[in-house]
Amino acid sequence: MAVTNPYSVLDINAATVAALARHRPTGFRGSFAAGGPPSSGTLGIGDMVSVSIFEASSGGLFGTSDATGSAGSKSVQLPPQQIDRGGRINVPYAGSVVAAGRTPAQVGQAIVSALSSKAIEPQVLVTLTENAANLVAVSGEVGQGGRFPLAVKGTRVLDAIALAGGPRAAAHDLFVRLTRGSRTGVESLTSLVSNPRENIYLRADDQLFIYREPRTFTVLGATGKNDTIDFTSDRVTLAEAIGKSGGLNDSRSDASGVFVFRYEDAAAFRELRGGATSGGYRSGSVPVVYRLDMKNPGSFLWSQRFLMRNK
């Protein structure tokens, strides 16, 4: 469908501010599965595991007795071994056992099942000795990037950044890019801190890249200063933006015509228009011009709740 209008003009009023407050662009939680901690504690290819086998009495497959015939050892500790490319480990008398994708307890139970008809009431303890599969990579503007193991209880995005030494710049200038397979999402660091729902659990092989991108807005027209201005904080309202630009010029400006030019998310635009179509823009960004009439006293209140965005 062809775009019928180059842009839309919307007044900044109580309804506009309320609609924008309800709408939030999709963050990590919307882009990635985040219903709870992922199934953690499962073993993977490359992990090193240790296997201990116990029997109820000596004289079995793994027990020993001394020269007098008295009871000796009832257990054996197998040398640590790496889970091979097929996801398996080898255990004497049990053969090849699937380990990848299982928890240590599940691997132990599989070994017990394989030995049940051969050993004397066997019990098996499988321990992860070196984690090589459940890792996440953290790089960019952090103290010390690297690959870090996922905790059994689950590791969130901010946990991983802390493991990497924390951020090296002001939080309001930093963004976090999460790559999971072929999917990528970006969230500001301050949003992760202020909105715990976006601080999702990571999964094995996730990659985090923290980068610095100072946010700015540009002021043109009859103001005290025409310039590109840094945010300097996480939230900058329209009222603060006008103040940072030196305010309106008394002799040149029209107080009823303060405009904010922005590409608005199509979903937010439909909400602002009460579900109306977005002028041919079904997805992506819609060019919008917001208009503030500062001759209306209510505008001063609305401008304190209207948040500026980067660029």
Task: Kindly summarize this structure in a few lines.
The protein has 311 residues and is α+β, with helices and mostly antiparallel strands.
Would you mind describing this structure in some detail?
Residues 39-128 form the Polysaccharide export protein N-terminal domain. InterPro entries: Poly_export, Poly_export_N, SLBB_dom, Soluble_ligand-bd. Pfam families: Poly_export (PF02563), SLBB (PF10531), SLBB_2 (PF22461). Residues 136-183 form the Soluble ligand binding domain. Keywords: Cell outer membrane, Ion transport, Lipoprotein, Membrane, Palmitate, Polysaccharide transport, Porin, Signal, Sugar transport, Transmembrane, Transmembrane beta strand, Transport. The protein has eight helices and 16 strands. By secondary structure, the protein is of the alpha+beta class. The protein has three domains: 8-24 and 215-303, Roll (Outer membrane lipoprotein wza fold like); 32-38 and 134-212, Outer membrane lipoprotein wza fold like (Roll), CATH 3.10.560; 48-130, wza like domain (wza like fold). The strands form five sheets. The chain has a five-stranded mixed sheet with strand order 9-8-12-10-11. Strands 2, 3, 4 and 7 form a four-stranded antiparallel sheet that branches. The chain has a three-stranded mixed sheet with strand order 1-16-15. The radius of gyration is 30 Å and the shape is elongated. 26% of the residues are buried.
Radius of gyration: 30 Å
Low-confidence stretches: none
Number of strands: 16
Termini separation (Å)? Answer: 28 Å
Figure out the total of helices. 8
Give the full name of the CATH homologous superfamily of the largest domain.
Outer membrane lipoprotein wza domain like
Output mean pLDDT.
87
The coarse silhouette is elongated
One letter per element, helices H and strands E, the order comes to EHHEEEEEHEEEHEEHEEEHEHEH
CATH class call of the largest domain: Alpha Beta
Task: Return the CATH topology of the largest domain.
Answer: Outer membrane lipoprotein wza fold like
Q: Summarize the amount of helix as a percent range.
A: 10-25%
Beta strand %: 25-35%
Number of structural units classed as domains: 3
Give the name of the CATH architecture of the largest domain. Answer: Roll
- Main sheet record: 5 strands, mixed
